[in-house]
């Protein structure tokens, strides 16, 4: 069986649905610090679980005979700047708990998400390479860079089968994202439908690597299903699909809602976004485990407006 820690989050919610479709609801245990929405709670087993509590995770692992853990709980970039020590504690101790369960052979495979936030202001911005300068300037980015180093260490030293991707900004409609710098790319669709206007907290020209959630979920499961010998990167894989700025999203939305207007009021998140890459070189993911994105910006816009508009 699989345990998803952080199953109520933006990615966790959709991973839970997809993995339950694939393996059967009773083989996928959802857990989070708080209960989720009705559809999640009614779709299979759920446990209230604090990701920083080793004994509590171990209890769930033993009770359900868990083989694999997807650790999706974290404090994201914008919120982490407001609570640095809480973010460090959650993001790092949850990872140590899961890596140590694997090191002690209580589970045998781990997925842990990294992020383009591991890159910093002096990282090459276009076609950011898999291995390059990484001086993250956010608490979240520092925690993800440290987490990558620990994942690779546990693989090399203890043979822990931990796998990871550096997610770009993710766009989805099933849940609202929580506390990210790329959340503008989700909010814009809600606002476009509600009042035909969106005031973006990132300025015009802020180009970031982004991905539609269906692609991100497919990449995650594809990586976890790949034979271990194909996985040459045990820190975290660059993963890319599209890159765009707020004005590109507005143009895409205007193909469906011609009167939609965007305005700009950059806030503290602008500085975070400015420290991140504009586009990503994900050739190693493509070569080693067949990564291939499917959704571009217009297809994403169609999906978002169709599903949010109902
Ligand atoms: C955030 N959505 O904004 C997350 C992600 C690359 C962005 O890490 O913090």
UniProtKB/TrEMBL annotation:
Pfam families: Epimerase. Signal peptide: none annotated. SUPFAM superfamilies: NAD(P)-binding Rossmann-fold domains. GO terms for molecular function: L-threonine 3-dehydrogenase activity. One of its GO terms (biological process) is L-threonine catabolic process. Residues 2-240 form the NAD-dependent epimerase/dehydratase domain. Belongs to the NAD(P)-dependent epimerase/dehydratase family. This is NAD-dependent epimerase/dehydratase family protein.
């Amino acid at each position: 069986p699989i345990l998803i820690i952080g199953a109520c989050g933006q990615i966790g919610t959709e991973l839970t649905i997809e993995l339950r479709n694939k393996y059967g609801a009773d083989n996928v245990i959802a857990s989070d610090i708080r209960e989720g929405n009705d559809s999640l709670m009614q779709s299979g087993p759920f446990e209230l679980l604090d990701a920083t509590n080793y004994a509590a995770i171990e209890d769930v692992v033993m009770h359900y005979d868990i083989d694999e853990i997807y650790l999706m709980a974290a404090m994201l970039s914008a919120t982490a700047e407001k609570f640095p020590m809480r973010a460090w504690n959650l993001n790092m101790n949850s990872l140590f708990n899961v890596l140590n369960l694997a090191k002690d052979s209580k589970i045998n495979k781990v997925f842990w998400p990294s992020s383009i936030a591991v890159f910093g202001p002096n990282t090459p911005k276009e076609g950011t390479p898999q291995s390059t300068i990484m001086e993250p300037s956010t608490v979240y980015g520092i925690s993800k860079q440290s987490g990558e180093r620990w994942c690779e260490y546990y693989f090399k030293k203890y043979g822990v089968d931990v796998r990871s991707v550096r997610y770009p900004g993710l766009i989805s409609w099933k849940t609202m994202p929580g506390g990210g710098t790329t959340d503008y790319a989700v909010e814009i669709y809600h606002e476009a439908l509600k009042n035909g206007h969106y005031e973006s907290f990132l300025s015009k020209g802020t180009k970031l690597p982004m991905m539609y959630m269906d692609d991100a979920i497919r990449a995650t499961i594809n990586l976890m299903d790949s034979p271990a010998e194909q996985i040459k990167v045990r820190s975290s894989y660059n993963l890319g699909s599209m890159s765009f700025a707020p004005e590109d999203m507005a143009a895409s939305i205007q193909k469906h809602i011609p009167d939609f207007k965007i305005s700009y009021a950059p806030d503290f998140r602008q500085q975070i976004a400015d420290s991140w890459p504009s586009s990503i070189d994900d050739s190693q993911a493509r070569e080693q485990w067949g990564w291939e994105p499917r959704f571009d910006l217009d297809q994403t816009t169609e999906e978002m407006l169709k599903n949010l508009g109902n």
